[in-house]
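User: Before I run my own analysis I want an independent prediction to cross-check against. Here's the chain; please return only the structure tokens and, at the end, one sentence I can use as a sanity check.
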Amino acid sequence: MPKHIVPVANMAGSAGKTTTTVTLAALLAEVGRRVLVVDLDPQSNATEWLGHDPDEVEVSSATVLLKRAELGEALVETGMEGLFLLPAARRRMDAELIQLQGVPARDMRLKQALRDCPEAIDTVLIDCPGSMGVMTLAALVPATSVVTVTWPSGKELKGIPMLEDVIAELADAEVNVGLTLGAVVPCMVPTGSSAGSIYQDGMSFLTEAYGDRTAPVVRKSVRVPEAQSHGVPLPVYAPREGVTDDYRAVLAYLEEKGIL
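Assistant: Structure tokens:
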């Protein structure tokens, strides 16, 4: 099994999960780590961002979880050396999720599949759906730690305690003993005059509630949708931009804590 298996998850919709997953993976690959991105999100944004058309994927993450293919058959290369992808198939995901609902021990399927992960891959980052369901649970079972992302505002912040409750239930049930929420990454944070009191209050709440589990802030940037539309990770598309530096700071923080 890889040393680090880290789902990037939240319970309140999209708040930078895919950006965080893809960018951290690319930064790790840049320094010689061998990384696997697992796309479990039906929206398939990580797959598209890493250069693969989700509508053309034949062997997907769901195919592997249904045991219709081995992990090695599904892994594909990306445009970066050392960065691999277990893609999602957008056009089939909904049907495959329905089939997974009836599979015994479905929550264990990803853990079983990752046992066959190539030995050279030391880190797995999992892009989860924006809600709790079979795919997110499957990601939490083999996890060594969990990272969540949030906008520092009311609605998104409410999802963090719900995720913590699920993590605690898995630990209490001895499905994944010792699993904890390792870090909270504030994403798409406005700066300067655009940062109103809602965001300031949200950041105060995060630091009070989660202390040193609060990662460095990632600023809002137009470079993110630009990079995604070009199918190029941020460190390649905009290596000197502030948002990329923000993610470098997040990575350094996660490495210092032993999460990555």
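Sanity check: Residues 242-256 form the longest helix (15 residues).
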